[in-house]
Amino acid sequence: MGLSSCKLQSRKQVGSSWVGNESENPFEIILNKKDRTCLRESFQRLQEPKEIVGLIFVDIVNDIEPDLRTVFGVNRAPKAAMLSMPKLGGHVARFTDLFEQITSMLGVSENLTGAWQLIRKTGRVHAKQAFLEQNFNQLEKNYFEIVLNVFEQRLIPYLTGEKEEPVPEGQAPRKVRFAQSYTPDVVTAVWKKFFAILVTQMTDAFELERTKMRNSQNQKTLAPHQHIENEVKKKKRISERQSEIEHTANSVEKGPEQLFEDPF
Ligand code: HEM
After folding, report:
1. Is the pLDDT of residue 51 over 80?
2. How far apart are CA 3 and CA 183, in angstroms?
3. Average pLDDT of span 74-90
4. What's the confidence (pLDDT) of residue 174?
5. What sign does the CA torsion over 29, 33, 34, 35 have?
6. 124 CB less than 6 Å from ligand 1?
7. How confident is the model at residue 19 (pLDDT cuts 50, 70, 90)?
8. Which residues of 229-241 are buried (b: 16+ CB within 10 A; e: fewer)?
Protein backbone atom coordinates (compact mmCIF):
# COMPACT_ATOMS: atom_id res chain seq x y z
CA MET A 1 0.00 0.00 0.00
CA GLY A 2 3.04 2.19 0.52
CA LEU A 3 1.05 5.36 1.06
CA SER A 4 1.95 5.76 4.72
CA SER A 5 5.51 6.54 3.69
CA CYS A 6 4.19 9.44 1.62
CA LYS A 7 4.91 12.28 4.03
CA LEU A 8 2.32 14.99 4.25
CA GLN A 9 4.73 17.86 4.41
CA SER A 10 3.16 21.25 3.95
CA ARG A 11 -0.01 20.72 5.94
CA LYS A 12 -2.79 23.23 5.95
CA GLN A 13 -5.84 23.44 8.09
CA VAL A 14 -9.20 22.92 6.47
CA GLY A 15 -11.99 23.23 9.01
CA SER A 16 -10.94 21.43 12.12
CA SER A 17 -8.70 18.82 10.58
CA TRP A 18 -5.21 18.87 9.17
CA VAL A 19 -4.70 17.58 5.70
CA GLY A 20 -1.88 17.95 3.25
CA ASN A 21 -1.85 19.98 0.08
CA GLU A 22 -4.57 19.21 -2.39
CA SER A 23 -1.85 17.88 -4.70
CA GLU A 24 -1.25 15.18 -2.07
CA ASN A 25 -4.86 14.10 -1.76
CA PRO A 26 -4.76 10.32 -2.33
CA PHE A 27 -8.31 10.35 -3.74
CA GLU A 28 -6.94 12.69 -6.40
CA ILE A 29 -3.59 11.00 -6.97
CA ILE A 30 -4.60 7.35 -6.90
CA LEU A 31 -8.09 7.51 -8.39
CA ASN A 32 -8.83 9.32 -11.65
CA LYS A 33 -12.20 10.81 -12.46
CA LYS A 34 -13.39 7.66 -14.22
CA ASP A 35 -12.36 5.54 -11.23
CA ARG A 36 -14.29 7.80 -8.89
CA THR A 37 -17.42 7.64 -11.01
CA CYS A 38 -17.10 3.86 -11.21
CA LEU A 39 -16.78 3.70 -7.42
CA ARG A 40 -19.98 5.65 -6.97
CA GLU A 41 -21.98 3.86 -9.65
CA SER A 42 -20.99 0.42 -8.49
CA PHE A 43 -21.89 1.29 -4.90
CA GLN A 44 -25.23 2.64 -6.01
CA ARG A 45 -25.90 -0.62 -7.73
CA LEU A 46 -26.49 -2.16 -4.30
CA GLN A 47 -30.11 -2.03 -3.24
CA GLU A 48 -29.53 -2.76 0.44
CA PRO A 49 -25.88 -2.00 1.21
CA LYS A 50 -26.52 -2.07 4.95
CA GLU A 51 -27.73 -5.67 4.73
CA ILE A 52 -24.49 -6.78 3.09
CA VAL A 53 -22.28 -4.71 5.39
CA GLY A 54 -24.15 -6.28 8.33
CA LEU A 55 -23.60 -9.85 7.08
CA ILE A 56 -19.91 -9.14 6.59
CA PHE A 57 -19.52 -7.66 10.08
CA VAL A 58 -21.28 -10.66 11.63
CA ASP A 59 -18.73 -12.91 9.90
CA ILE A 60 -15.87 -10.71 11.09
CA VAL A 61 -16.84 -10.86 14.76
CA ASN A 62 -17.67 -14.58 14.62
CA ASP A 63 -15.04 -16.10 12.38
CA ILE A 64 -12.22 -13.65 11.89
CA GLU A 65 -11.73 -11.46 14.96
CA PRO A 66 -13.77 -12.81 17.91
CA ASP A 67 -11.95 -10.28 20.13
CA LEU A 68 -14.17 -7.63 18.55
CA ARG A 69 -17.32 -9.28 19.98
CA THR A 70 -16.86 -7.49 23.29
CA VAL A 71 -16.15 -4.17 21.57
CA PHE A 72 -19.40 -4.43 19.66
CA GLY A 73 -21.39 -5.76 22.61
CA VAL A 74 -22.31 -9.10 21.03
CA ASN A 75 -20.41 -11.45 23.30
CA ARG A 76 -23.46 -13.28 24.49
CA ALA A 77 -25.79 -12.67 21.58
CA PRO A 78 -26.70 -15.52 19.23
CA LYS A 79 -25.49 -14.95 15.67
CA ALA A 80 -29.01 -14.28 14.36
CA ALA A 81 -29.60 -11.50 16.89
CA MET A 82 -26.24 -9.75 16.59
CA LEU A 83 -27.28 -7.03 14.20
CA SER A 84 -30.07 -5.95 16.49
CA MET A 85 -27.54 -5.22 19.23
CA PRO A 86 -27.07 -1.45 19.41
CA LYS A 87 -23.29 -1.26 19.14
CA LEU A 88 -22.84 -3.64 16.25
CA GLY A 89 -26.03 -2.47 14.52
CA GLY A 90 -24.94 1.17 15.04
CA HIS A 91 -21.50 0.53 13.64
CA VAL A 92 -22.91 -1.22 10.58
CA ALA A 93 -25.17 1.79 9.98
CA ARG A 94 -22.33 4.31 10.38
CA PHE A 95 -19.98 2.28 8.24
CA THR A 96 -22.58 2.07 5.46
CA ASP A 97 -23.38 5.80 5.73
CA LEU A 98 -19.68 6.58 5.47
CA PHE A 99 -19.39 4.59 2.23
CA GLU A 100 -22.51 6.28 0.89
CA GLN A 101 -21.15 9.72 1.76
CA ILE A 102 -17.59 9.18 0.55
CA THR A 103 -18.59 7.62 -2.76
CA SER A 104 -20.97 10.53 -3.30
CA MET A 105 -18.27 13.09 -2.49
CA LEU A 106 -15.87 11.37 -4.87
CA GLY A 107 -18.20 10.50 -7.71
CA VAL A 108 -20.92 13.17 -7.59
CA SER A 109 -20.02 16.43 -5.85
CA GLU A 110 -16.28 15.92 -6.46
CA ASN A 111 -15.53 17.22 -2.99
CA LEU A 112 -12.22 15.43 -2.74
CA THR A 113 -10.95 17.57 0.14
CA GLY A 114 -14.08 16.78 2.13
CA ALA A 115 -13.71 13.07 1.41
CA TRP A 116 -10.10 13.14 2.57
CA GLN A 117 -10.98 15.02 5.73
CA LEU A 118 -13.86 12.68 6.47
CA ILE A 119 -11.77 9.57 6.20
CA ARG A 120 -9.01 11.03 8.38
CA LYS A 121 -11.57 12.10 10.96
CA THR A 122 -12.92 8.54 10.97
CA GLY A 123 -9.42 7.22 11.63
CA ARG A 124 -8.94 9.73 14.44
CA VAL A 125 -12.19 8.98 16.27
CA HIS A 126 -11.17 5.33 16.55
CA ALA A 127 -8.22 6.31 18.76
CA LYS A 128 -10.80 7.00 21.47
CA GLN A 129 -11.92 3.37 21.42
CA ALA A 130 -10.12 1.75 24.36
CA PHE A 131 -9.76 -1.60 22.59
CA LEU A 132 -8.10 -0.09 19.54
CA GLU A 133 -6.06 2.37 21.60
CA GLN A 134 -4.51 -0.60 23.40
CA ASN A 135 -4.40 -3.32 20.76
CA PHE A 136 -3.99 -1.61 17.42
CA ASN A 137 -0.58 -2.35 16.01
CA GLN A 138 0.19 -1.20 12.52
CA LEU A 139 2.47 -4.11 11.72
CA GLU A 140 0.85 -7.02 13.54
CA LYS A 141 -2.77 -6.15 14.20
CA ASN A 142 -3.98 -3.40 11.93
CA TYR A 143 -7.70 -3.78 12.54
CA PHE A 144 -8.61 -1.39 9.73
CA GLU A 145 -6.67 -3.56 7.34
CA ILE A 146 -8.13 -6.78 8.73
CA VAL A 147 -11.70 -5.48 8.41
CA LEU A 148 -11.22 -3.93 4.99
CA ASN A 149 -9.47 -7.05 3.64
CA VAL A 150 -12.62 -8.99 4.46
CA PHE A 151 -14.67 -6.33 2.71
CA GLU A 152 -12.38 -6.59 -0.28
CA GLN A 153 -13.12 -10.29 -0.55
CA ARG A 154 -16.81 -10.24 0.29
CA LEU A 155 -18.19 -6.91 -0.83
CA ILE A 156 -16.55 -6.63 -4.24
CA PRO A 157 -18.45 -9.59 -5.80
CA TYR A 158 -21.72 -7.76 -5.09
CA LEU A 159 -20.32 -4.55 -6.56
CA THR A 160 -19.21 -6.23 -9.75
CA GLY A 161 -22.60 -7.93 -10.06
CA GLU A 162 -21.00 -11.39 -9.92
CA LYS A 163 -22.96 -12.14 -6.78
CA GLU A 164 -26.65 -11.35 -6.31
CA GLU A 165 -27.71 -9.58 -3.17
CA PRO A 166 -29.38 -11.82 -0.60
CA VAL A 167 -33.13 -11.38 -0.60
CA PRO A 168 -34.59 -11.10 2.90
CA GLU A 169 -37.06 -13.86 3.70
CA GLY A 170 -40.55 -13.27 2.36
CA GLN A 171 -39.46 -10.62 -0.17
CA ALA A 172 -39.66 -10.94 -3.92
CA PRO A 173 -36.32 -11.05 -5.81
CA ARG A 174 -35.25 -7.55 -6.80
CA LYS A 175 -34.68 -6.25 -10.26
CA VAL A 176 -31.24 -4.86 -11.11
CA ARG A 177 -31.56 -1.06 -11.03
CA PHE A 178 -29.34 -0.35 -14.00
CA ALA A 179 -26.97 -2.29 -16.13
CA GLN A 180 -23.40 -2.36 -14.91
CA SER A 181 -21.32 -0.30 -17.31
CA TYR A 182 -17.93 -1.40 -15.99
CA THR A 183 -16.31 -4.78 -16.30
CA PRO A 184 -15.80 -6.78 -13.11
CA ASP A 185 -12.04 -6.31 -13.44
CA VAL A 186 -12.35 -2.53 -13.55
CA VAL A 187 -14.71 -2.46 -10.55
CA THR A 188 -12.44 -4.81 -8.61
CA ALA A 189 -9.33 -2.75 -9.33
CA VAL A 190 -11.02 0.53 -8.35
CA TRP A 191 -12.37 -0.84 -5.07
CA LYS A 192 -9.02 -2.38 -4.16
CA LYS A 193 -7.39 1.02 -4.63
CA PHE A 194 -10.15 2.65 -2.61
CA PHE A 195 -9.73 0.21 0.29
CA ALA A 196 -5.96 0.70 0.23
CA ILE A 197 -6.45 4.47 0.58
CA LEU A 198 -8.84 3.96 3.50
CA VAL A 199 -6.40 1.69 5.32
CA THR A 200 -3.45 4.05 4.87
CA GLN A 201 -5.30 7.24 5.72
CA MET A 202 -7.26 5.84 8.67
CA THR A 203 -4.12 4.23 10.09
CA ASP A 204 -2.07 7.40 9.76
CA ALA A 205 -4.76 9.61 11.31
CA PHE A 206 -5.36 7.04 14.07
CA GLU A 207 -1.65 6.82 14.95
CA LEU A 208 -1.23 10.61 15.06
CA GLU A 209 -4.25 10.97 17.30
CA ARG A 210 -3.17 8.14 19.60
CA THR A 211 0.30 9.72 19.98
CA LYS A 212 -1.31 13.07 20.76
CA MET A 213 -3.59 11.46 23.35
CA ARG A 214 -0.71 9.57 24.95
CA ASN A 215 1.42 12.72 25.13
CA SER A 216 -1.31 14.65 26.84
CA GLN A 217 -1.89 11.70 29.18
CA ASN A 218 1.83 11.74 30.03
CA GLN A 219 1.63 15.41 30.84
CA LYS A 220 -1.23 14.72 33.18
CA THR A 221 0.77 12.02 34.95
CA LEU A 222 3.75 14.35 35.25
CA ALA A 223 1.56 17.00 36.81
CA PRO A 224 1.44 15.54 40.36
CA HIS A 225 4.83 17.06 41.22
CA GLN A 226 3.36 20.39 40.26
CA HIS A 227 0.35 19.64 42.44
CA ILE A 228 2.71 18.91 45.36
CA GLU A 229 4.58 22.17 44.82
CA ASN A 230 1.29 24.04 44.71
CA GLU A 231 0.12 22.24 47.84
CA VAL A 232 3.28 23.27 49.72
CA LYS A 233 2.85 26.90 48.61
CA LYS A 234 -0.80 26.81 49.62
CA LYS A 235 0.03 25.42 53.10
CA LYS A 236 2.69 28.09 53.53
CA ARG A 237 0.20 30.82 52.59
CA ILE A 238 -2.42 29.41 54.98
CA SER A 239 0.05 29.20 57.85
CA GLU A 240 1.24 32.76 57.15
CA ARG A 241 -2.34 34.00 57.19
CA GLN A 242 -3.03 31.96 60.31
CA SER A 243 -0.12 33.52 62.18
CA GLU A 244 -1.24 36.95 60.96
CA ILE A 245 -4.73 36.28 62.34
CA GLU A 246 -3.32 35.02 65.64
CA HIS A 247 -1.12 38.08 65.90
CA THR A 248 -4.09 40.37 65.31
CA ALA A 249 -6.21 38.36 67.76
CA ASN A 250 -3.53 38.71 70.42
CA SER A 251 -3.48 42.43 69.97
CA VAL A 252 -7.28 42.56 70.20
CA GLU A 253 -7.27 40.37 73.35
CA LYS A 254 -4.94 42.90 74.97
CA GLY A 255 -7.71 45.37 74.29
CA PRO A 256 -7.33 48.85 72.98
CA GLU A 257 -4.32 50.67 74.24
CA GLN A 258 -5.42 52.61 77.34
CA LEU A 259 -4.42 56.15 77.78
CA PHE A 260 -3.73 57.16 81.34
CA GLU A 261 -3.74 60.63 82.55
CA ASP A 262 -0.30 61.99 82.79
CA PRO A 263 0.39 61.95 86.57
CA PHE A 264 2.83 64.73 86.22
C1 HEM B 1 -17.35 4.36 15.06
C2 HEM B 1 -16.22 3.40 10.46
C3 HEM B 1 -13.30 -0.12 11.92
C4 HEM B 1 -15.08 0.31 16.36
C5 HEM B 1 -17.25 4.44 13.69
C6 HEM B 1 -17.84 5.48 12.87
C7 HEM B 1 -17.53 5.20 11.60
C8 HEM B 1 -16.74 4.00 11.59
C9 HEM B 1 -17.91 6.00 10.36
C10 HEM B 1 -18.66 6.67 13.39
C11 HEM B 1 -17.66 7.77 13.66
C12 HEM B 1 -18.23 9.02 14.27
O13 HEM B 1 -19.02 8.92 15.20
O14 HEM B 1 -17.84 10.10 13.79
C15 HEM B 1 -15.28 2.41 10.47
C16 HEM B 1 -14.54 1.97 9.31
C17 HEM B 1 -13.71 1.01 9.70
C18 HEM B 1 -13.94 0.80 11.14
C19 HEM B 1 -14.67 2.52 7.90
C20 HEM B 1 -12.76 0.32 8.79
C21 HEM B 1 -12.09 -0.66 8.99
C22 HEM B 1 -13.53 -0.32 13.24
C23 HEM B 1 -12.91 -1.33 14.04
C24 HEM B 1 -13.42 -1.24 15.27
C25 HEM B 1 -14.36 -0.13 15.28
C26 HEM B 1 -11.86 -2.33 13.55
C27 HEM B 1 -13.07 -2.13 16.40
C28 HEM B 1 -12.75 -1.77 17.59
C29 HEM B 1 -15.85 1.44 16.38
C30 HEM B 1 -16.57 1.91 17.55
C31 HEM B 1 -17.19 3.09 17.19
C32 HEM B 1 -16.88 3.32 15.80
C33 HEM B 1 -16.62 1.19 18.91
C34 HEM B 1 -18.02 4.00 18.12
C35 HEM B 1 -19.34 4.32 17.68
C36 HEM B 1 -20.38 3.27 17.78
O37 HEM B 1 -20.76 2.91 18.90
O38 HEM B 1 -20.84 2.82 16.72
N39 HEM B 1 -16.59 3.56 12.87
N40 HEM B 1 -14.91 1.67 11.56
N41 HEM B 1 -14.41 0.40 14.01
N42 HEM B 1 -16.07 2.30 15.34
FE43 HEM B 1 -15.51 1.98 13.46
Report:
1. yes
2. 27
3. 96
4. 67
5. positive
6. no
7. low
8. eeeeeeeeeeeee
Lowest mean pLDDT among 161-175, 211-225, 239-253: 239-253
Q: Which residues fall within 8 angstroms of residue 2, CB to CB, at 6 or more apart?
A: none
Q: How far apart are CA 252 and CA 236, in angstroms?
A: 24
Which residue's CA is the nearest one to ligand 1's atom 17? 144
Mutation to probe ligand 1, out of 98, 121, 122 (largest number of atoms < 8 A from CB): 122
CATH number of 10-168+180-222: 1.10.490.10
Per-residue pLDDT tens for 194-215?
A: 999 999 999 999 999 999 999 9
**CA 81 to ligand 1 center in whole angstroms:** 20
Alpha-carbon distance 96 to 17, whole Å?
Answer: 22
Rounded to whole angstroms, the Cα distance separating 75 from 61 reads: 9
Helix, strand, coil % over all residues of the chain, rounded to 5:
70, 5, 30
Cα–ligand 1 centroid distance for 246 (angstroms): 62
The Cα–Cα gap between 152 and 171 comes to 27
What are the residue boundaries of the structural domains of the chain, listed by start?
10-168+180-222
Query: Which ligand 1 atom minimizes the distance to the CA of 99?
Result: 19
